[in-house]
């Protein structure tokens, strides 16, 4: 017998707990439900099995209440969680963070079940929809800070409306944490009262990848948001519950930007058309007034013709002057607005910066500009672009700022 003193049952079980829980990281497990009990406390206990083994599982009350489907015996599911040891019973179990149906067919069933329930609660009703503003100047974004969706939206904005400001609240767009992060980001932007419209979305993916946008917490956050929301999830063929709850659905993130942002060129065209239309209206009104005056003077008694004609002519001249002044003031105001837009667009033109003596430096063969000497090393080849022409150079030395 070893010289070490014997352990109590509690001590031995505690050692097993320490080793197991400390050495096995969180993991996903695929299995079939062979036993399922929802306790009156709200906790859910079930068994996952395959053809060779069984594993006891627990889903605590808080996570059990967030289930988007009703698990059934015989159903195959994916469960994410961590192996833990229940010391009092001396057995190990799987502490689940999240469970979801395994396979597209079961996902579709879960989708339809949640859709039916939320639809009955009025979350997709048309009367809940908020109109999208026609010319927003502040746009909130909820998406991955590293995803293609963000790049697509900003590219469209640069071409259509470079004066629009954006505020991004980054969030995971797939995985177990995604739904909570997306819902929290929407609530943060809404409570800030900063954006005039919010775009929520991500690029394309499989139904599993897009599932976060079918989670109940995301749908509720969108439906209860006081700021207009445009949903742009995946591609045109992908329809999520977030799309149904949003105030407007866009087939792609790029399309969402085009639907929300005004086109600067189109604005200039409309201003020109409006000014031409106002000119025509003013001219026609003056012509009509003069015609009516001539008709009136032809039927008025001869002795009063001169006095009435003079009075009407004077009134017409005053009206003509007022209309001309009002038209000129209106056109001058629109002209100033157009000049300000043009100046703002001109100030954002990179070529205008170069004409003031600045230059763009890039490492040879690269497109991204160099903005700090820390990006360069001795003997690096660089290309320098001026307002007119370009040059190549070799770095001899670098000096920190």
TrEMBL record:
The keyword Translocase does not apply. It is an enzyme of class 3 (hydrolase). GO terms for cellular component: cytoplasm; exodeoxyribonuclease VII complex. Residues 7-99 form the OB-fold nucleic acid binding domain. Pfam families: Exonuc_VII_L (PF02601), tRNA_anti_2 (PF13742). Keywords: Cytoplasm, Exonuclease, Hydrolase, Nuclease. Its EC number is 3.1.11.6. It catalyses: Exonucleolytic cleavage in either 5'- to 3'- or 3'- to 5'-direction to yield nucleoside 5'-phosphates. One of its GO terms (molecular function) is exodeoxyribonuclease VII activity. Bidirectionally degrades single-stranded DNA into large acid-insoluble oligonucleotides, which are then degraded further into small acid-soluble oligonucleotides. This is Exodeoxyribonuclease 7 large subunit.
């Amino acid at each position: 017998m070893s010289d070490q003193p014997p352990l109590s049952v509690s001590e031995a079980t505690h050692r097993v707990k320490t080793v197991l829980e400390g050495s096995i990281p969180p993991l996903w497990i695929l299995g079939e439900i062979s036993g399922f009990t929802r306790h009156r406390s709200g906790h859910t206990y079930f068994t996952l099995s395959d053809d060779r083994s069984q594993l006891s599982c627990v889903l605590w009350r808080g996570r059990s209440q967030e289930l988007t489907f009703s698990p059934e015996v015989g159903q195959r599911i994916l469960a994410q969680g961590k192996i833990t040891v229940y010391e009092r019973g001396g057995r190990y179990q799987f502490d689940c963070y999240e469970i979801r149906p395994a396979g597209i067919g079961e996902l579709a069933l879960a989708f339809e079940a949640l859709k039916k329930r939320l639809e009955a609660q009025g979350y997709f009703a048309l009367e809940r929809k908020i109109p999208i503003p026609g010319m927003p100047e502040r746009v909130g974004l909820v998406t991955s800070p590293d995803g293609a969706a963000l790049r697509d939206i900003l590219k469209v904005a640069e071409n259509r409306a470079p004066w629009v400001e954006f505020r991004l609240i980054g969030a995971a767009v797939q995985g177990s944490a995604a739904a909570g992060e997306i819902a929290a980001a929407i609530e943060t932007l809404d409570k800030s009262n900063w954006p005039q419209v919010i775009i929520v979305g991500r690029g394309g993916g499989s139904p599993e990848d897009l599932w976060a946008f079918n989670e109940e917490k995301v749908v509720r956050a969108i439906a209860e948001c006081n700021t207009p929301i445009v949903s742009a999830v995946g591609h045109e063929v992908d329809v999520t519950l977030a799309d149904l709850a949003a105030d407007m659905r866009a087939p792609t993130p790029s399309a969402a930007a085009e639907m929300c942002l005004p086109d600067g060129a189109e604005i200039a065209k409309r201003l020109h058309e409006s000014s031409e239309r106002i000119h025509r209206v003013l001219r026609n009104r003056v012509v009509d007034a003069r015609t009516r005056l001539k008709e009136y003077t032809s039927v008025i008694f001869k002795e009063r013709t001169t006095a009435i004609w003079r009075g009407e002519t004077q009134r017409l001249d005053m009206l003509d002057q007022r209309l001309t002044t009002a038209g000129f003031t209106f056109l001058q105001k629109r002209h100033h607005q157009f000049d300000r837009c043009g100046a703002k667009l001109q100030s954002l033109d990179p070529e205008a910066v170069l004409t003031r003596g600045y230059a763009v430096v890039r490492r040879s063969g690269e497109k991204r500009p160099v903005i700090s000497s820390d990006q360069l090393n001795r003997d690096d080849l660089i290309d320098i672009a001026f307002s007119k022409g370009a040059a190549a150079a070799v770095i001899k030395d670098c000096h920190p700022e």
